[in-house]
Write a structure and sequence with these properties.
The chain is mainly beta. It is built from 1 helix and 21 strands. The protein starts with a helix and ends in a 13-residue tail after the last strand.
Amino acid sequence: MRQYKLLSICILLILSACAPAVTEAPPVNTPKATDIPSTPTEEIMDIFKKPLVTDMYTADPSAHVFEGKIYIYPSHDLDHNNVDTGTNQGDQFDMEDYHVFSMENMGSLPTDHGEVLHVKDVPWASKQMWAPDAAFKDGTYYLYFPARDKEHNFRIGVATSTSPAGPFTAEPNYIEGSFSIDPAVFIDDDGQAYMYFGGLWGGQLEKWRTNEFNPEGTEPRSSEIAVGPRVVKLSEDMLNFDGVPQEISLLDKYKAAILAGETDKRFFEAAWMHKYNGVYYFSYSTGSTHYLAYATGDNPMGPFTFKGYILNPVMGWTTHHSIVEFEGKWYLFYHDAELSRGIDYKRNIKVTELTHNADGTIQTIDP
């Protein structure tokens, strides 16, 4: 028995010497969203390839950097199953509310902050809350949006909030002197704010060629100068126009006005402005030819000279975008119809990196 105990003790000593030392488990270092680098790694590059929002249809993304995050203000395609009546009224896009999304960085998918404004809460509006934009000044966030008034004409309204995530409270009346669609607000280095707007066909811009509504208004003939977008200074309180909207002159490389028949260059809708190295970049959709084009100038009110394309045609009829700088890089937010497979043109927002060349031109992106 004594020999057996000695043998057991020896075996235990041998096993103890061979066993690995037991130590306290190291703490798990779970990265926070803010720890994800702004420059996408190979693992998160899919954010540049897939829809950013998949539980609802989103379009016309207006992106801004507020409070150190990217905030996105898109329109919201709904399953109303309306059809295109063929009258160029855009009846199939019967949107009625806005959501706001935010991204901590370019490695995180957007957070939905919920509905921030509904057409029923806009006293002057009847329907079709189309592409919005946002701005910030003196502690207040402004949401600019188009909608049809009670007479079925598009006007541009404004709503305010103390938070970039909303909710927003609409002003009781639309901006006096406003018309058409797709407001985009740019605040220059000197603090002056400008609004760019306009859209043909469903956006009614061809009916406002003299800044007065003409229900019989049509586009110019192909050989005539194309209808241009509008620009106007905003008042100090950001709630009104400071002056009368002016038509922007878009020129070709020979400094000749772009013609209505040049449908691969003429303005259709989706105005946007950004500034890079002191140059003003006015970008827009060509509509029926489905490009995002851009033109440059040395004055925020134009004229602008056509330079080329930012984005080649995407799946779906419309194309609409925004351009924003975030943490030292530039990004293009846009939409296509991947989620709906292009069947009924309901859209989804996307993002990709945008590159300015050394000569100031922009590299064309293949979607």
